[in-house]
């Protein structure tokens, strides 16, 4: 996804108000942005709090700054600056965090981003974008660039099955038809789950949706009518996200549905459970421990059908 980000930002460099700040990261990916932006490419060093405050000042002066780092270094370390300097003033600062969820694997909890969009969407004016597929990145960048407020872009690794055709980008999309539960997935782990489900008969496999923009509306009326109709049909909502339960999409959606007495008869929520074995491993290892891997999802679906 970083390669597509680099291409999209290189195009944005043509805008005179574009400026890019990095916390000494992005090597072997963002060099085209550096070359295109010239003096408007700023390596702020390992000083994330200062970097965000500088970005807020640039935005206050009429520029459109993009700020890049590893996800936990971007949202956790400078959280106070994001809240006070950027969000309270509604400034158009785009925060780009690479490696959402367990992406940095064996580097451990300090490098994992398990509560990022939950924490940030609690701040005023901010919209979070969580691309599920590489094709989503360009659309997300365009929407951020066209907006007037703070944004957070959570990047991961594209896991889309080879040859799989996606519908056009939208904040909500049904990406796989099915007659089973209504499944809503956030982020790149959607790719592996979709690949596992492709072999199942359409009549019994889940109807798979992907949501990319957060927070979800607090009112069920603002949720897509097609999604609500699908949920009424199935009566079983199955939410999957590489994020802790608190502040996650499962909780956002449950609140919106319960508020309007539209809660389904069954609700399954698979989320990041931290470190059950107190050990660190690859992203694949941590997903399996949390029951987020395709095999665990298939087993859960089989159990729910029994």
CATH class of the largest domain equals: Alpha Beta
Q: Compute the CA-based radius of gyration.
A: 19 Å
Assign the structural class, choosing from mainly alpha, mainly beta, alpha/beta, alpha+beta, or little secondary structure.
Answer: alpha/beta
- Strand order within the widest sheet? 2-1-3-4-6-5-10
Number of helices: 12
Number of domains: 2
* Coarse shape: globular
From the N-terminal CA to the C-terminal CA, the straight-line distance is 38 Å
**Mean pLDDT over all positions:** 95
Q: Please name the fourth-level CATH homologous superfamily of the largest domain.
A: Thiamin diphosphate (ThDP)-binding fold, Pyr/PP domains
The helix content is 25-40%
How does the major sheet shape up? 7 strands, mixed
Enter the CATH topology name of the largest domain.
Rossmann fold
pLDDT < 50 runs, ≥5 residues: none
What is the N-to-C succession of helices and strands? HEHEHEHHEHEHEEEHEEHEHEHH
